[in-house]
Design brief:
Number of helices: 14
Shape: globular
Number of strands: 21
Mean pLDDT: 94
Number of domains: 2
Radius of gyration: 22 Å
Low-confidence stretches: 459-471
Distance between the termini: 44 Å
Helix content: 25-40%
Structural class: alpha+beta
Largest sheet: 10 strands, mixed
CATH class of the largest domain: Alpha Beta
CATH architecture of the largest domain: 3-Layer(aba) Sandwich
Length: 474
Amino acid sequence: MASRPENVGILAMEIYFPTTCVQQEDLETFDGVSKGKYTIGLGQDCMTFCTDLEDVISMSLTAVTSLLEKYEIDPKQIGRLEVGSETVIDKSKSIKTWLMHIFEKCGNTEIEGVDSTNACYGGTAALFNCINWIESSSWDGRYGLVVATDSAVYAEGAARPTGGAAAVAMLIGPNAPIATESKYRGTHMAHVYDFYKPNLASEYPVVDGKLSQTCYLMALDSCYKRFCNKFEKEEGRQFSLLDTDYIAFHSPYNKLVQKSFGRLLFNDFSRHARSVGKDAQEKLEPFAGLSEQDSYNSRDLEKVSQQLAKPLYDAKIQPSTLLPKQVGNMYTASLYAALASIIHNKHTTLDGQRVMMFSYGSGLASTLFSFKIREGQFPFTLSNITEVMDVQNKLDSRHEFLPEDFVENLKRMETLYGAKDFVSTSQLSLLRPGAFYLTKVDSMYRRFYSRKVISAGDNFEKSKLANGTTHDEL
């Protein structure tokens, strides 16, 4: 009997986000709010957004094509393709079917999987589906491919600065440098109306911000307890935050990540008071008698736990925050952009370390799971993944929009949502070479895409952006 594949996880990664962005500082001034409301209050620096040239389909096409090209993966070697997204383009036709264009050209139409949808959790569901497939008797020896993609936009108001847009593509297989520790997963699912999109005529969500934050923290508590229990049963010793090197959180905005890490410290105190140290134990003791519900509403507990967690936050969380703070809330892609940030910032010292991942999707679905990191073998090495993603160059090559132009773009996107018979009008100079983009939607709602030409000597990130001819129309 053949042995099961070992160290199944992420072999390779690529991330794509539009070059168009707006600074949160500028938005504060434009919106007439107090200075620091978005940059300190939300913890955000910048926000990426789509023009009429880009959407979740074009971003996914770009990310997948780039991953296959840069790691020199034969498209015939993909046996399962799963997409996680909550951005609805079509109520029937999956994003995955659009990506099949890449594989049909080489004759590979035997690829299982479709889209997974539940708010920001869909990317994690897609990842688990691919991992479970490879670890099952159904696996045919080929790679899995996961895409997490979303464009997060909000109506005018307090939530608008928490938008963003990106696609992350991940190649899944055995002997991975980012290997999952499946036996430690802790999951929490429930029914709640904290964030949802009932109006199919609009892409804007209905949000109960206070409830959503509480649900996030409640789900985190539940998942962490279950993760710890499974770890302790398996390893025969208690688990605490000292047993993980880094943690990546789904990041609607960075301030919630800060609160969440403080909450985990309080969890350690509640489970094993001595594990947090004498000083923290003394300062958290006054909150020991709070009911669970009261603990979520206690500003004093929130403040104290964040202060106590600050040194650990700087070491274990800060490296994950680069892309979420610079790009914004990417919904399904958010958690994996945080992982990409850790790899970008710490790839030379990650060998042998554990990264915990907290995935949350409103409505709600959540899982806390972990990866064990190792250097891997070329081309699936941490250093090569870092080079391929080229995060800093992508950030540095963006086009900053004035807030008034950002708002005008949103108004145009509102008119185009669900529309037909139009042609995209934004300048191609806003695109990186190699990026796919929407050219038109015809009278039958059919969408057409092209790819911006890559000239000789160009690469995706470092070339000077210029209008160019296009090829490979879809």
